[in-house]
Amino acid sequence: MRWSPLRALLFGALLVSPSTALAQACCAGVSAITPARLELHERALLGAELRAAHALGNFNSSGDFHSNPKGASELDFEQDVFGSVRWLGRGQASLLVPFLISRRSSATTGSELGAGLGDLNLGARYDLVRNRELSYLPGIGLLAGATLPTGRPPEDAKKPLASDSTGTGAVQVSLGLALERSFGSVLVTASGLGAKRFSRSVRGVQSALAPQLTGILGVGYAFSDATAAALVGTYTYEGDASIDERDSPGTARKQLRVALAGSHTLDDAWRLRASVFVDPPVSGLGQNQPAAFGAAIGAIWSLL
Amino acid sequence: MPRDAALVELSVSLLSKALLLASTALVLACSSSPPDGINQDELTSESGSLLVTVSSAPDALPVRGENQIFYLVKSSATGAPVDGLALSMTPIMPAHSHASPDVPAGVGLGGGSYRFDDVLLSMPGLWELRTTVAGSPEDHFTPRFEVE
Questions:
Q1: pTM score, two decimals?
Q2: Measured between CB atoms, does B42 come within 8 Å of chain A?
Q3: CB-hemisphere CA count at 13 Å for B124?
Q4: Chain A interface, best mutation among B24, B89, B93, B96, by max A CB count within 10 A
Q5: Chain A contact set for B93 (CB, 8 A)
Q6: CB distance A218 to A232 below 8 Å
Q7: Which of A147, B19, B28, B145 is 20 to 30 A removed from A271 (C-alpha atoms)?
Q8: Which residues, other chains included, contact B67 with Cβ-Cβ below 8 Å and sequence gap of 6+?
Q9: Which residues contact B50 (CB under 8 A, 6 or more apart)?
Q10: Which residues pair with A302 in a beta bridge?
């Protein structure tokens, strides 16, 4: 699988969704922004999400966007199973298990289909201050996460276009801060995450990605206690990678993703979530990254 | 009224100039020149002793999928073709910290030419063809290409 910040972002997103309170209409926005954050009254949850994405093209090392050349395409599916449990009242720990399927084609190799288990994600969040707990402070949450290289890195793929690669091959750890505040039916969240990726040996070459910074800004609106929608923007940036401990110029990466999500609570235990997203294919908004658009649907079962 | 009309005209003019300035700034901010050494078909080895000309098939620049890569190696000092080198290549994608699934094999064609078959560049993006010249001491050269 192409190394993308999306997996880390997804898991970061699991941790940065706003908490909710049962009686607050604004808090239906929880699942609209992210799927797996426990609501205040929940002790645990299990969920599944199916995501499909179609690659529009690629941002090159100068940040110019190029659509796919003739004969080349990529369609990715990801099925995530995730769970969260509460600890110490204000904390929660989460695990996400992804399964990936990719269909790729090029003019020289034809089409291929690959699949496999992706990189496991672990996460934790601790709410120092809950939303609206203090009138003079927003909700403040501390975030931590780790990605474990349980997937197959691209150099170990068996298929020419590495459609059966499902992981990055590297361990990643991250720390972050999440802020949130509701204003009536509107919920505003802002989060920042920093990630350290450990170096690894790739075919005898020592390769290390630069630290990655991620900012997530979300605005949710609750139409009722049960239904909400949210607009979420995610921006990631990292500097040049290093090869054999020397900076490799032109290898910095950046990506903007915009998502529109909605959620609907069926009853005390079940809620549904759906979203559409796009990486705007505008030169300058990305670098060394693919651009894609897609959609996701998911269901969450919670334990009170 | 004339005074209001003048104010409107002035406002529109200022707004137009502001938009032009903003869009120019945006274009400049979004534009960047490509880093040196990308898509160059000629390079010198790290020791400076070899001059290498790079070409590929099926296209002039490497493409996503399977490629053939050709090197024409000459002495930097004399310009004479250099045969008999033991070359090995590792294609890597530094921005994504991974390599190609296969390690292509190099074949000497004579006249300073070498061919690598089955060079798999599995994804679009910036690739480095890290090439080692065996010997004592070793030498290296690394063509860099944007693959679409």
A1: 0.82
A2: no
A3: 28
A4: B96
A5: 154
A6: yes
A7: A147
A8: A108, B56, B57, B58, B119, B120, B121
A9: B44, B73, B74, B75, B76, B82, B133, B139, B141
A10: A45
Give the Cα separation of A302 and B77 in Å (integer). 73
ipTM for the predicted complex: 0.82
Please, is B30 exposed, middle or buried when counting C-beta atoms within 10 Å of its C-beta (0-12, 13-18, 19+)? middle
pLDDT tens digits, B45-66: 999 999 999 999 999 899 999 9
The residue type of B100 is S
Which whole number is the average pLDDT over A160-164? 93
What gap in Å lies between CA A112 and CA A287, rounded to an integer? 26
Q: Which backbone phi and psi does A101 adopt, to 5 degrees?
A: -130, 135
Q: Using the structure block, give the residue that is written with the tokens 């672990």.
A: A122
Chain A: closest CA distance from residue B84 (Å): 24
Which chain B residues have a beta carbon less than 8 Å from that of A158?
101
Chain A residues touching B96 at Cβ < 8 A: 2-3, 154, 288
Q: How many CB atoms lie within 10 A of CB B3?
A: 7
